[in-house]
Amino acid sequence: MEMLSVQHVTGGYTGEAVVKDVSFIVEKGELFGILGPNGSGKTTLLKMLSGILPIQQGEVLIGGEKIQSYSPKQLAQKVAVLSQHSSQSFSYTVKETVSLGRYAHQKGLFQTWSGKDETVVQQVMKQIGVSQFQEKHLQELSGGEKQRVFLAQALAQEPEILLLDEPTNHLDLSYQKELLDLLKQWTTEKGLTVVSIFHDLNLAGLYCDRLLLLENGVIKINHVPNEVLREETIRDVYRTNIQKHPHPKVAAPQMVLLPEIQKAAEEIEINEKMLHQSDEFILLKAPFPLRTMSSGVIGAGTGWHQLFVNRHVNKDYNCDDHKAEMASFLRANGFEPSETVGMMTAVYLEDVEYQYHQTDEFSIFVVVTAGVGNAVDPSKSGQHTFEMVPGTINTWIFVNGELSEEAFIQSIMTATEAKAKAMVDLEVVDKVTGTIATGTSTDSILVAAAQTGKYLEYAGTITPLGKVIGHAVYQCTTKAVQKSRRRKHL
Hints:
The structure is a single chain. α11 (405-425) packs parallel to α12 (464-488). Strands 13, 14, 15, 16, 17, 18, 20 and 23 form an eight-stranded mixed β-sheet that branches. A six-stranded mixed β-sheet has the order 6-7-8-3-9-10, with helices on both faces. The protein has a four-stranded antiparallel β-sheet with strand order 2-1-4-5, covered by helices on one side. β17 and β18 (363-369) form a beta hairpin. The protein has two domains: 2-257, 3-Layer(aba) Sandwich (Rossmann fold), CATH 3.40.50; 272-488, L-amino peptidase D-ALA esterase/amidase, CATH 3.60.70. It is elongated. The chain is an alpha/beta fold. The protein contains twelve helices and 24 strands.
């Protein structure tokens, strides 16, 4: 159902057109966001939608009727406006403030207070979470609490459309989330239509159904958040370097700023000189944080890490919470878990194999510990019982270059294919099935990139990076398994 229709609207102040030929439609129950840099016309447009500013050209339709056809009181029954009240402080109580929202529904010369007015005010205060301090004065409240009170006042109007001008401005993080969660709830449960200006692109991407991006008073794009928040579009409109990432928990786009970090004149390469070995663990301490993708016990997933630990544990290692135990081990040895990718292996660490490979444009450093006591044929893994035992093949790949997201994933694929080929050529057998195995049940892998130097978009098996990874992982895996086999025969 069409709730708000803006048709070729032009307008501004004292005859100057700030907003030019803007058209869009907002459906009932939508949370519609308006974005744009300072001076793009966001607030001017919102004032025209609320009737505060006249429209020079075009039309604004509320519920199918022109906005000019409504009296101020009729318009207040349809549209409520929540402005930025952070600096205001009145002597009214919370209840008195919220009650002002019922003005549009009161009848008669003396504006009598009805039972419905009282019911609506009490209900809205309860739903917004301000009823417990309804007798307090506004001066006694925090900024976030005040904003909730003003939201309750706007909702007490029982509007069909709520207009907001940067409602989370000056609010703490928890209050921002609380306010937007409430608004989203009202759109889905009560069919309230919300049109809001957003300064924060990430909040807009997280909560809005659609976004309108303004640039110099005209529409740049009007679409779903994933289309509006494109890197090239935001860079062009906001004139800043920015990168897009998916939210880790919600299907929503998020934008991150890319600061201009001064890089060292001579880039430091990750190589064997940074590798330290003891009976307890192998450590590589990078001179700066590396972009990582791993399946480590600690530091799994993607992130930035500077410490890399491959820890030896006994074959009978058993712990109810191996992640917590691993974190305790790291701290006991002076390593901060949040900065560390930590793995476990049951093989002897002196059997480690590593190789450094240099090309004309980039270099890699590969480290492998390998044993095949619990080797598995994945095509027949159904014959195995599920048992978490320490990993026996751990592969580290350090790239002195800049990897794309695609290259990170392809690096893992190429390394896994190379490891599997080494297992096949070595004729490693799955003891349960008697067939050729391609890995062990708890192998781990790490790809870590300096993110400086040569940009490497791909890492498939026949790409320049893939060729080097495949060769190094195959050789290191082969030699490490051979060392392990020889140890067993000693």
